[in-house]
Structures are given as structure tokens and as C-alpha cells.
Amino acid sequence: MARRGAAGRPHTVRPAAAHGRRVSAPRVRPGDRPSVRSGPRRKGRDRGDAALQLVLVIPLFVTVLLAIAQVVFWWFGVETARTAGRQAVQDARLYGTADPAGTATARARAALGQLGHVHRPAVTATLSADLVTITVRGRADAVLPGLPVSITVHASAVRERLHP
Asked: Taking the model in full, what pTM does it have?
């Protein structure tokens, strides 16, 4: 480290041991904790700072985790409804089915009952001459109370026909 001397010229500061003096470490009394910070220690100005940071960060962190869990539950409910809709369409599109709409809704309700994760399901079947469409509506599991997460899934397939 260079300092300016009396004449204004820089000179190096030599340690005290180089001048022949004895150098000892600072004394630490019991109960004193050495500071890990650089610079002078400000007593009492930052007490409770970590607690304040924790109070501000933890709710944000928990909210983000709950939001991620809610998205996962919604996605799982959509996949469950999609599976039930596909199974219902496969049953309703078969050639010779006596009541395709009734068969499809019964199959979808049975699949939803087995798989779970879709609450208050409503299954509707729409039949045309060439197409079978199943619509499954419901609600996903809720992680955050009071947050309704609705699910609507459509599954369609061409009806089988006999061509003589």
C-alpha cells in the first residue's frame, strides 16, 4: 500500500515487525465474537435484519410452491378427463352400439370414478352421422382454497360404419 510522505512522494509502509517491534494478535475476550464482515462494525443498526428478510421471503416462496402444486394438480385432472373422454369415444364409435350416447357417458363416468382427481364431472355426448364427440367438464383438486380450477376436455372420433 503506498502512502504520501511529507515531501509528497509515495513511500511504502513497512509492517511493525520490520522495524524490530513485537507484533501480537488482537486480544479476544470471552463472549466477544469476531466480525466476519469487512469494514467497521455498526453496532445495533442491523439487528433483526435476517428476521425481516425471512418474513418477507418465506410467504413469497410458499406461494410459489403452492402455485406450482396447483398447476400440477390441474394438469393431472386434465389428463384424467382426457383419458376418460378417449375411453368413452372408443366405446361410442363402435359399429352396432345400441345407445352410443348412453354407453359413452356411462363409460366416461366409470373411468372418472376409477381415476378420481376430477370433482363434479359432467359428461356430454354429441353424435352426428359421422362423428362422436365427448365433452368432459369438472374441477381439479384445489391446493389454494377458494380457487376454482375448471377443466374442459373434448374427445372426438369418426363413427364406424359398415360399407357393403
From this structure: 0.63
